[in-house]
């Protein structure tokens, strides 16, 4: 079996259990020590002028707080992902964090392309709770539009 | 990395280049010697009473010929798949042929479930030339409905 060349595997992670399960699957089944593992988190675009439900423009304080919360979320997801890797003893794997901003389905495909990923791995459900209403839409889109092989992992 | 337990990987193969590429990807990236590789081919249901385009009922001779052709197709795809495995030096992998009959998208999901597959691998395009008009429909369906992780591989 030929497993020489460094492969680059991009795993889309978010705050869902399913994305952590997808990461575990990836480490157990796909990743070897010669691979590069890219943990990709996509956050929704920052709101410069945001209206709340009642039509008020958010004050800078609120925007700052949201920004801080969003960075906190990124860090907590990334730390959880790295802990998952450690738990599965994938400590020799070359790992990298990438944070994208925008519409998850487009950002995931374009990052996979830009990084020249060999494989894209993701959970089957929505990406982040902003998206969860449209179950599966992100993975559907990526399975169709990403140029590399895409692994869709369901939480059992 | 934990790669002990025998995993069962089902690869859906058909007469397309893409499905052979998906198989190559699978062997190069996913399969190790302790895995069981199931080559799954799905043929459309046999026609007992078939009308041709002009509305004539096919004679038994035509049906026999079609049946023979379909078995020939199964064998040629399976042999090509096994040759692909040999070419990639995956000669120690425990391999099995499974031929299903029916609607590819349903048969693939149900075989994966029945065999308790750990992973299902397939090309991104239609399954067999009967289906190719509806590009991607089979892999879309399987990515949504199969219970195990699904790898969708595109021909580059």
TrEMBL record, chains A, B:
It holds the Pfam family Usp. Coiled coil: none annotated. InterPro entries: Rossmann-like_a/b/a_fold, Universal_stress_UspA, UspA. Residues 7-154 form the UspA domain. PANTHER family: ADENINE NUCLEOTIDE ALPHA HYDROLASES-LIKE SUPERFAMILY PROTEIN. This is Universal stress protein A. It comes from Vigna unguiculata (Cowpea).
